[in-house]
Design goal:
It is a single chain. By secondary structure, this protein is mainly beta. It folds into 2 domains: 19-151, Immunoglobulin-like, CATH 2.60.40.10; 155-258, Immunoglobulins (Immunoglobulin-like, Sandwich). The chain contains 4 helices and 25 strands. The chain has a 5-stranded mixed β-sheet with strand order 18-20-16-14-24, with no helix packed on it. Strands 3-5-9-7 form a 4-stranded antiparallel β-sheet, with no helix packed on it. Strand 1 and strand 2 (8-11) form a beta hairpin.
Length: 316
């Protein structure tokens, strides 16, 4: 700023900090609740399982993710790049989650896609990222991280022997635990199989029934295995609500090691000499006449005295 007073020129400088706000707003949302089974499956199966809950379950549908981008400026923004990801626990069917687009003044665009869950639970989606150039700079923005709750059965199978190591031809008991860890009941049918080169002895290989949430069922049977080696227990055939399914994740299967017993390690025999008791030992000569050690000097003294007496008498 410039001013003149009484012929003198004055200058005034001032600096203000201006914060530039993004020209674009980014929002991300997802279906709050959904079902793992389809609506047709629920209508076909669940009337006969739990008629009181079917209407609540039918309120949920498929999981849709929506991303909204809005231009709040009165000028066009070109070359916006939007990328997103469903995360590790949700999947997308053959659809790219990357978009490049333009936004006219005050224009809003929505990008929507469907995701699927492999198991029930509550899942948080990662943020979407938006990059663009405006106001002589590059902007990078991240959305919020919405969550979705998926309802459904979650049937898991655990199969294990009562002994992990057996001898060829021995019997072993196999137990199969079927557990529904989800929050919806399910009709379950299990047909188990025995390993190759094994013989079925007795028990139950088949289960069919309704498993309520957090409920379990167990079947067991006995087999014998003749061939040595590591034997992998095969996965059973499983049908959930009338459809063949692997359940909520791969079955947890065990192995059996068939081998001959290891012979005991031979023990080396060591001959230890037996000591002879002291009383049975023959005493050494020096030990037999040890009492003479004190007697001989006394005899010599007596003999010397006798010689002196004889000599004394002879002199008289």
């Amino acid at each position: 700023m410039k001013g003149v007073k009484e012929g003198v020129t004055y200058y005034y400088d001032a600096t203000n900090i201006i914060t530039l706000l993004p020209s674009v707003k980014l929002q991300k949302s997802a279906t709050k609740e959904s079902m793992l089974p389809s609506r047709q499956e629920v209508e076909r199966i669940y009337h006969s399982i739990d008629a009181n809950e079917i209407y609540r379950w039918l309120q949920g549908g498929e999981v849709y993710v929506s991303i909204g981008v809005t231009n709040y400026q009165n000028h066009e923004i070109k070359g916006l790049k939007l990328t997103d990801s469903p995360g590790r626990q949700l999947i997308v069917d053959n659809q790219s989650l990357a978009w490049t687009f333009d936004l006219k003044p005050f224009e809003a665009k929505e990008f929507k896609y469907r995701v699927k869950a492999l198991r029930p639970g509550t899942f948080r989606l990662p943020p979407a990222e938006l990059t663009y150039s405006d106001l002589n700079r590059t902007w990078s923005m991240f959305s919020t991280t919405p969550s979705t709750e998926v309802h459904g059965p979650c049937v898991q199978v655990y199969k294990k022997p009562d002994s992990s190591v057996i001898q060829p031809g021995s019997n072993v008991s196999i137990s199969v635990t079927i557990r529904n860890s989800g929050d919806m009941p399910s009709r379950v049918k299990i047909m188990d199989m025995i390993p190759e080169n094994s013989t079925f002895i007795g028990g139950i290989l088949y289960y069919e029934g309704v498993l309520a949430p957090k409920d379990s069922a167990i079947i067991s049977y006995n087999i014998s295995i003749e061939t040595e080696g590591q034997v992998q227990l095969p996965a059973p055939s499983m049908f959930i609500n009338g459809r063949e399914d692997t359940g909520c994740g791969e079955p947890l299967l065990s192995k059996i090691l068939v081998k001959e017993p290891t012979p005991p390690t031979p023990v080396k025999t060591i001959n230890v000499p037996v000591e002879t008791p002291l009383e049975n030992l023959t005493p050494l000569p020096s030990q037999q006449y040890r009492f003479l050690e004190g007697l001989i000097p006394a005899l010599m003294l007596i003999l010397a005295v006798a010689v002196l007496i004889i000599l004394h008498r002879s002199n008289k």
